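Morning. Coffee machine broken again, so started the prediction first thing and wrote up yesterday's gels while waiting. Chain of 283 residues, entered below exactly as on the submission form.
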Amino acid sequence: FEAFTEKNIATSNVILTSDKQKIRNKSIDAVVIGSDQVWNYTFARFSNIDFASFVSEGTPIISYAASFGVSQIPKKLHQQYIAGLSRIKSLSVREISGQGIVRDIIKREVPIVLDPTLLLSTNQWKALASSSTFDTGSSYVLVYMLGELSADRASYINEYALTHKLKVKRLNDISDLELYTANPQDFVKLFLNAKAVFTDSFHACVFSVLFKKRFEIFNRIGESVSMNSRIESLIEILKLKTKNSEHGSQIIEVTAYTNIDVTLESAKTKSLKYIDRALTQLL
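Came back before lunch.
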């Protein structure tokens, strides 16, 4: 990941070690906050930094597809969120529940925009995958769980793979050493070539949709607070039809993608217009 970042992503040499530090740089025209679970209070690293507390008063702040990752905020944290959210000039979120949180806490109506990964075309992601030298093979199901993979779920997935004459590959699982050191290019390629995906990850759902895969969504095991609000919003915004399995998962079949290109392009246009409008207001 670090090698990929060094080659492809320009990063700042400014490092913030506490929310007491400030950046007073007149060359900064605006700060953009984004995006995945950046406002999730359950994370140990959550602080006022996530609301750009480090910039001087008067610096325009924009949020793009900011995610709370949860469906509600405890009352005891409302004042912190009120102070943080109120500083943001142009505010957008990625979840329907996040829209409700902002409405409830600071009485503002804000737009829902797409996760940044969905602003790139499928062909752009395929181009990244083509730079991978990893041999994925062509007959496998991909398992990507950020929470625990229970014995029951593992048995169900293995049974599915056996029935369809497929191998099982596991991302983010030390028991699958071949995939454990997969880099970002490999990650995308693994979704591109998978025959089916089993996951509790929002971004696994995103790449499954981009590559029009059959996939199953499970609730994440080991989280005290549900973080499925992002996935639920993705399904609703893209108008995907799901069905429930007897194993507690939601299944998205390949047939669900009939109108996905039109729906996705419309949402993408709306999202890009939000960015243009937010930045134009600064000029």
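The longest strand covers residues 140-144. Going to sketch it on the whiteboard this afternoon.
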